[in-house]
């Protein structure tokens, strides 16, 4: 058969291009300091060979999700323009994710709601049905895309702006995220990693609108471990702070981390603000008897299509769910579903984000989501 060609916009499933099921490896880093021995350790290479075959770890699922992420975001970076609505931007990205990862549910597909966070808003905003927001020239938008294959989530984000005066802010945050990626490693203390990220971030100042601002890390946000079908590993999850802390928790072999940093010209703190779009069933949700029929039927839909993957209200709409808000709020009140409202710094501030997913393999560190764009 003739060699398959990717469409524009990208919609051809990736198994057409990798028929042997072997997907591109991410950016490989050798471990530093007293872990350099891992590169050639027979024992660690053997461990890895077993893991490569093990359907549980499936390196190939992580890498298929990452390749999907690269193709979808590269098209998004080329085509997103002021004048577009956030709804059409989100739907275009999600259509690409579903088509390339070749799934629309628990097997593969959207890993979590497409974040389209504008200006002072840093995370967890996605348009709900009826949202008419139009992207403007002066906006700085954080695009946070999630792709999963067999529950292995690729969580990576970038910032778009069309005003050159924001370039320094984007540089600062990109540098801080790359510090986090470079310094991450087995046995590295999370609190110390936060200090290194903070140092890089705070070494920048930016001039916007004739005013000079120090770039502040958003202290309540940070990186996190990712487990199968669990975007932040629940109570067992680890957190990578953006400032120095005394946490003695360490990174471990086999950990799968999202390394993300956020910089702001505002207070460096975010609060919950505006209508919620992001929800996820808790990993260890209590098994409480549900009296509300709408909550019961909604939970069935959630279990069937998302499991413990985060979902957006728009995904309930497209599944034909109607009048679900009462049931959804009831599931939240019962502690079965967690809501994740938008997280915003003060009005008038500008925030930026860059994020990659890294895999602390036995022999090396693999930045699975690295592309030639960021
Ligand atoms: O802020 S988090 O809740 C968190 C960070 C550390 C421990 S928990 N969050 C995880 C998450 C929650 C809900 C989602 F729908 C998607 C992701 C980080 C994040 N948001 C987007 N990309 N990465
Ligand atoms: Mn195109
Ligand atoms: Mn993210
Ligand atoms: Mn993340």
Poorly predicted residue ranges: none
What is the tally of helical segments?
Answer: 8
* Helix-strand topology string: EHHHEEEEHHEEEEEEEEHEHHEEEE
Distance between the termini: 34 Å
Shape descriptor: globular
Please state the average pLDDT score.
97
The share of residues in extended strands comes to 15-25%
Based on CA atoms alone, the radius of gyration comes out at 20 Å
* Count of beta strands: 18
Major sheet: 7 strands, antiparallel
Bound molecule types = the ligand O=S(=O)(c1cccs1)N(Cc1ccc(F)cc1)Cc1ncn[nH]1, manganese (II) ion
The helicity comes to 25-40%
Q: Provide the structure class.
A: alpha+beta
Overview of this structure, please?
Helix content is 29%, strand content 24%. The model has no long low-confidence stretch (mean pLDDT 97). With 374 residues, it is an alpha+beta fold. It is built from eight helices and 18 strands. Strands 1, 8, 9, 10, 11, 17 and 18 form a seven-stranded antiparallel β-sheet that branches. Strands 2-4-5 form a three-stranded antiparallel β-sheet, with helices on one face. A three-stranded antiparallel β-sheet has the order 3-16-12, with no helix packed on it. A hairpin with a 4-residue loop joins strand 17 and strand 18 (365-367). It has helices spanning 42-53, 59-79, 86-101, 167-183, 190-202, 293-305, 313-318, 325-333; strands at 27-29, 108-118, 121-123, 140-149, 152-161, 205-208, 211-214, 216-217, 222-225, 239-241, 256-264, 271-272, 278-281, 311-312, 337-340, 343-344, 351-360, 365-367. The two termini are 34 Å apart. It is globular, with a radius of gyration of 20 Å. The protein binds the ligand O=S(=O)(c1cccs1)N(Cc1ccc(F)cc1)Cc1ncn[nH]1 and manganese (II) ion (3 copies). The site of one manganese (II) ion (MN) has 5 residues, from strand 11.
């Amino acid at each position: 058969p003739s060699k398959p060609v990717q469409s524009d916009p990208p919609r051809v499933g990736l198994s057409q291009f990798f028929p042997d099921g072997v997907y591109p490896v991410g950016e490989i880093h050798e471990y530093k300091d007293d872990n350099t021995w891992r590169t050639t350790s027979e024992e660690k290479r053997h461990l890895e060979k077993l893991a490569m075959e093990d359907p549980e770890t499936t390196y190939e699922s992580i890498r298929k999700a990452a390749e999907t992420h690269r193709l979808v975001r590269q098209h998004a970076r080329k085509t997103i323009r002021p004048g577009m609505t956030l709804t059409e931007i989100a739907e275009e990205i999600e259509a690409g994710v579903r088509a390339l990862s070749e799934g629309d549910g628990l097997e593969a597909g959207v890993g979590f709601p497409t974040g389209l966070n504008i200006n002072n808003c840093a995370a967890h905003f996605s348009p709900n049905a009826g949202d008419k927001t139009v992207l403007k020239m002066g906006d700085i938008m954080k695009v946070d895309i999630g792709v999963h294959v067999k529950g292995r989530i690729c969580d990576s984000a970038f910032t778009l702006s069309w005003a050159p005066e924001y370039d320094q802010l984007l540089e600062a945050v990109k540098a801080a995220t790359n510090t986090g990626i470079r310094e991450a490693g087995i046995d590295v203390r999370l609190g110390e990693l936060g200090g290194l990220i903070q140092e890089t971030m705070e070494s920048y100042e930016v001039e916007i609108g004739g005013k000079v601002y120090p770039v502040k890390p958003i202290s309540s946000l940070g990186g996190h471990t990712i487990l199968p079908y669990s975007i932040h590993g629940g109570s067992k999850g680890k957190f990578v702070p953006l400032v120095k802390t005394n946490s003695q928790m360490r990174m471990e072999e086999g950990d799968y981390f999202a390394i993300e940093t956020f910089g702001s010209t505002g207070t460096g703190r975010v609060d919950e603000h505006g209508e919620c779009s992001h929800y996820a069933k808790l990993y260890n949700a209590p098994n409480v008897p549900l009296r509300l029929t709408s909550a019961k039927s909604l939970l069935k839909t959630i279990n069937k299509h998302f499991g413990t993957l985060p979902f957006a209200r728009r995904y309930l709409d497209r599944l034909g769910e109607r009048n679900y808000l009462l049931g959804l709020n009831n599931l939240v009140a019962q502690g079965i579903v967690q809501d994740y409202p938008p997280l915003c710094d003060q009005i008038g501030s500008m925030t930026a984000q860059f994020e990659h997913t890294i895999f602390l393999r036995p022999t090396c560190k693999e930045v699975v989501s690295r592309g030639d764009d960021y």
